[in-house]
Structure formats: structure tokens, C-alpha cells
Amino acid sequence: MITLIIVLLSGTAVGVLLGLTGGGAGVFAIPLLTLLMGFSFMEAKPIALIAVAIAAFVGALQSAKSGHLRWRAALFIVFIGSLASPLGQWIAFQLSHQWLVYSFSILMLVMASNLFRQAFAMVGSRCSDNDSIQRPCMLSEKTGRLIWTKKCAAKLTAAGISSGVFLGLYGVGVGFILVPALSRSTNISVQATTATSLMVIALMSSIVAGGMVLDGVTINQTGLTFIGAACVGAVIGRLLSLRLSSLTLKWGLGTLMVITAILFALIS
Fold it and tell me: What tens digit of pLDDT does each residue of 236-259 get?
């Protein structure tokens, strides 16, 4: 009974964080599954992948209704990322459990530092107009769609490759690559960046997880319960995201990442 409660609470917590942040907070799934439920890193990956995929679909579909989703850009990145993900999976199989844990903990600290940097920037400046800055991928004033140039395709290809390798290696955390990449490469709105990132995460995670299942990877009852709880938490998180400021989320998420990364590295 106690184990079931831990699984339900952990899954719901991850889902809430996913709903709040739009996919990047899936990094918490791996430490929780490993530290509290006894999974190895490689056993936790498919569980985290499926939980993140479903939670991202929830957010992406909600955003798509408002017309913010950039389908062509999302599908292009998913295609490139899916081709690159086997490389990340191959690298993961070359590393021991301990090295995966250490490198993952370091990445969590890097993600936390980026969140703190963004939070300081938000406090220090009043705001910037993303539409007025020249980017490789610019929206057409006539059609409202992205203008596809060689430079634009190259930037989105780079985003797809890095996201695919990262997803294949760790299974989670792609949102922290995609959102900055889209923000630097395009002049689409913040809402469109989030919606497009969510759809990429949902589709790419589904493809990679599906490949693992076809390779014979199975998920036990504990993993399925965790995934179900994460789905419920994602809905809650999306509702809470309307009430919390971006600055509060960055400070809170960054602090939680630092604590989790240290515990993960020391205990695993």
C-alpha cells in the first residue's frame, strides 16, 4: 500500500511539473523512478518517455486549438530527430549506470543554471520584442507562415539532431533544448514556441518509446501506474500554469533541479 502511494504521488508530481513547464520537467521522472522505485536508468527511460509523450500531447492539443502550433516546423524537427535518436541510444548502451547517473545529474545542474539565468534576465529587463529581431526563420507578413530558407532549414535541422540524440540518450528533458532553439531561430510567439515544442516532444518521444517496445522492452505494473498518475498530474499542471508566473516557475523549478541532481548523484 505504501509503495502504491509513493508511485501515485511521484507520478502525479512529475505530471504536474510537465503540465507547468511543457515537457522539460520530464527530467524529474528518471531520478524518482530510480531512487524511489528501484528501476535502473535504462528501465526508467521507456516509462519516462511514455509519461512525457502523453503529458506533452495534452499540452500540445490544448495549444493547437488556439492556432499557435507550427505544424510544418514541428514535423520537420520530429523527422530529423527520429533519425538522430538511435545515435543517442547507442551512446547510452556504451555507458554504465553510474556514468549515466553522473552525466544526467550534471545536465540537470546545467538546466537549473539556465533557468536561474533566465530568471535574472527577466528581473533585470522589462522585456524584448521577439518579432522585431531578425532570425533565420521569419514569419511572412502576407501568409503568417514561416519562410523556409536554407539557413532556416539548417537551424531547424540542428535543433532536430541535438534533440534526437539527447532524447535517445536520456529519454527526457528535450524541452530545455527545443524551446531555446526555436526562440533563437524563429520569430514566432512564445505561445507558438511552447506549442510547437510540445508537439515535437510528444511525437518524438512516442516514436522512440515505440521502437523500444518493438525491441522487446516491457513496462511492469508499477511503471504503468506511474504513467497513469503522470497523465492526471499533467492536466492539473496545465490548470495551475494559468495561475503561476513564469518567473516563479523558473526559480522554483531551478531550485528543485539542483536538489534532485545532488541527491541523484549521491544516492544512485
Answer: 887 787 677 778 888 888 899 999
Q: Determine the length of the chain.
A: 268
Contact assessment for residue 17 and residue 253, using Cβ atoms and an 8 Å cutoff: yes
Query: Where are the chain's structural domains?
Result: 2-267
For the beta carbon of residue 163, count every other beta carbon within 10 angstroms. 28
Which residues fall within 8 angstroms of residue 70, CB to CB, at 6 or more apart? 146, 186, 188, 192, 195, 196
- 52-79 per-residue burial string, b: 16 or more CB within 10 A, e: under 16: bbbbbbbbbeebbeeebbbeebbebbbe
Residue pair 219/45 in contact (Cβ under 8 Å)? The answer is no
pTM of the shown model? 0.83
Give yes or no for a contact between 42 and 195, defined as CB atoms under 8 angstroms apart: no
Question: Residue 144 burial (CB < 10 Å; 0-12/13-18/19+)?
Answer: exposed
Task: Tell me the C-alpha to C-alpha distance, in Å, between residue 72 and each of 13, 75, 151.
Answer: 32, 5, 16
